[in-house]
Design brief:
By secondary structure, the chain is mostly helical. The protein has one helix spanning 2-71.
Length: 76
């Protein structure tokens, strides 16, 4: 009976160790996924900012062009 109890305790320790290892791996994966999400969001934000800058720059150039041509006298 004592051998059987010792074997069960050994198996329970093994299961507990596997659970602890799994928990560590799961935490690591969660951190990596969170870092990846933040990196993607930062990339999207910087990309959007660049696109907005190009858009504003294009609108400014178009606006200046229109103002320049509307202000100059039309020759007939």
């Amino acid at each position: 009976m004592l051998d059987c109890e010792q074997e069960i305790l050994t198996q329970l320790r093994t299961i507990f160790d596997l659970i602890i290892n799994f928990q560590g791996i799961q935490n690591s994966m969660h951190r990596e996924a969170k870092d990846e999400l933040e990196a993607r969001q930062n990339y999207d934000n910087s990309k959007m900012t660049s696109e907005e800058r190009v858009s504003v720059s294009s609108l400014t150039a178009l606006s200046n062009f229109c103002l320049l041509h509307m202000a100059s006298p039309v020759s007939s």
